[in-house]
Structures are given as C-alpha cells and as structure tokens.
C-alpha cells in the first residue's frame, strides 16, 4: 500500500507553523490552531471543514494548495482529513435513485458525468460500493460539492449528514491520481 504524506501550514502560502502527517486525523486542533495552506507530497486525501470527517469535503492529490479556502470557496479551515488508499483492481458501484436502495438501480464500473444523460435518472440517493474508491458530485460534469465513497453500503445519504444532497455525477479515484 502506498503511503500518503500531507503537510499543513497555519498561514497561507506555506507560512507559519506546520504539521506533517501520513494518515488520518479526526481533529486538527491537536496539532495546529488553524490551517490556511497545505502541500500533498504523495497520495490522495479527503479534507473536511469540520472535525470527525464531517461537513464540506474536498479531494486533494499531489500538489500545492497555497490558498485552498479561496480555491474551494470555503469559509472554514480544514478540521479533519482522511487518506484514501490506492486501489488496484476493478471498480464497481451500484447506484439507486431513492434511499434504502429504492427506485431505479444501475451497476457502474466507470466514470459518469451525468446520471440523467446516461441512465435517465435525475439523481442518486443511495449506493453500494463493491470495489474501488469514488467521488460523487452534486451537479453533472463533476461540478459542485463532492463526497468520497469507499467500499461499503450507503443506504441513506441524508442520515449520513449529507442533508438533501442529490448526486448527479461520479468518478473513480484512479491510480493515475497518485
């Protein structure tokens, strides 16, 4: 398994105190008061604007994020993060139109830039990820807020803290992202 490495900085443009990490963290306050920039040296991460992997999420891969709050349109700093393990194998997800696996169902094995165009389904409200790691987006063409889904069952997005979130596109987190 490839390890990820991310460095957080208290100020914009990689200034101030820093914290280097190679795994998950549910609460950044243990290490830094706040974070206004970061650098991903290896791997991929989901960062969250609330503790315990809650709130708005953003996918980060190798690169420099000197002013991510402006870039993402966030009002809050990164408060928690999770490393996304590299996946080598096939990708498979079953998406459902309604909560609790109701309504139309489709098996997916590749990216989909519009549920409406491909499946004639306006949105997705539950899913089962059998293989791989995926990002789902609130709008077609991979736009808007995003959420990470690893292998598992996701019966009810609103019970998971996503509110009335309705996903309209999705993409695989591919080996090339690392």
UniProtKB/TrEMBL annotation:
The keyword Repeat applies. Keywords: Eye lens protein, Repeat. Pfam families: Crystall (PF00030). Residues 4-42, 43-85, 132-174 form the Beta/gamma crystallin 'Greek key' domain. GO terms for biological process: lens development in camera-type eye; visual perception. GO terms for molecular function: structural constituent of eye lens. Crystallins are the dominant structural components of the vertebrate eye lens. This is Gamma-crystallin M2-like. It comes from Chanos chanos (Milkfish). The gene is LOC115811651.
């Amino acid at each position: 398994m490839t390890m990820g490495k991310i460095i957080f900085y208290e100020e914009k443009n990689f200034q101030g105190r820093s914290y280097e990490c190679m795994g998950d963290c549910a609460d950044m306050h243990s290490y830094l008061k706040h974070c206004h920039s970061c650098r991903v040296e290896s791997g991929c991460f989901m960062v969250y604007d609330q503790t315990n992997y809650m709130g708005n999420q953003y996918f980060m891969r190798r690169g420099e994020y000197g002013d991510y709050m402006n870039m993402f349109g966030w009002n809050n700093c990164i408060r928690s993060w999770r490393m996304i393990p590299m996946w080598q194998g096939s990708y498979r997800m079953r998406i459902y139109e309604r909560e609790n696996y109701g309504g139309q169902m489709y098996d997916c094995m590749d990216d989909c830039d519009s549920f409406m165009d491909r499946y004639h389904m306006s949105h997705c409200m539950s899913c089962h990820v059998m293989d791989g790691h995926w990002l789902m987006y609130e709008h077609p063409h991979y736009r808007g807020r995003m959420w990470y889904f690893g292998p598992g069952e996701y019966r009810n997005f609103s019970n998971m803290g996503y509110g009335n979130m309705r996903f309209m596109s999705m993409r695989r987190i591919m080996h090339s992202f690392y």
